[in-house]
Amino acid sequence: MKRFLVISGLILGSSLFPVGAIAATFSQIVVYGDSLSDVGIAAAVTRGAVPPYSPFFGNGRFSNGSIWIEYLAAKFGISANNNFAVGGATSGTINTIPFPATGLVGIQKEVNDNVITDPDALYVIWGGANDYLGAGVINPAVTVGNLSSQISTLIGRGAKNILVPNLSNLGKLPLALGAPNAADLDLLTQGHNAGLAASIADLSSFFPSVKLSLLDVNSLFNRVTANPGNFGFDNVTNQCISVNFLCSTPQTYLFWDDIHPTTRGHQLIGDLAFESLQVPEPTTMLGSLLAFGSVVTLKRKIKPSKLKEKELVKVG
Length: 316
Known about the structure:
Layout: H1 2-16, E1 21-23, E2 29-33, H2 41-45, H3 68-76, E3 82-83, H4 107-113, E4 122-126, H5 129-133, H6 140-156, E5 161-165, H7 182-206, E6 211-215, H8 217-226, E7 235-239, E8 241-242, E9 245-246, E10 253-255, H9 263-276, E11 278-280, H10 285-301, H11 309-315
Parallel strand pairs: 2-3, 2-4, 4-5, 5-6, 7-10
Antiparallel strand pairs: 1-11, 8-9
Helix pairs in contact: 1-10, 3-9, 6-7
């Protein structure tokens, strides 16, 4: 019985001092990507021609308000001013927006042309959707290869923390609703996400000192579409805005236009990113001392060589 009480005390001590989580510390957020992370570059380059329906968009964002990276930066209380994401960017060098502007580039050029060497920054690379939706890429290995190369470039510059979101199901975008290629987009999304996960795992093994985090936006959106009411949505299939229509309750829509989330949808992504970047909180000093004391007591009172088999079962 004494032995049992000693171990029970150890378990009780641990439960009284649970391990929590604290937010990681970064100096800034550096962003490379497409319209899902663009905070106004495409709008500036095209002088307001892009995004469309600009009077209803949030200050050049491809949404009706703040986007996920802004929500994430606000939660950390840090700057995301080094945001080079531009709408229409592919994972390569080209851009899919049909506008004669040199500032509309691909993510590869964003990374090449905007060198930041801050080891304390959080770096973000999110792209790939435009490869499949507008650039005609049908092999996810091409897109994943581009993103992996860019991640390696950032690591070579000294990046220690890199966040890489995957893609929500492109086949379930309002753009693909009822379209004959919806199933193909579904398969491309699956191939992209699987390849991206495998690549990040490989890079993590090769660069163990770098924290590479895969943000599973796909699973998040699957949960939202399966149970919209749990997230405050009434409509997760249609877009809020189009040429001849503007919904009256955008806060209840997951999608703002035929591709991009509403600001509420972006907020969920930002929340998920923040949660994924938290780190375990160290055990409190008192909890550590209690656990250590219990272990010492256990060692003093129990001699493993004299325990009978049924006593071992009881203790375990």
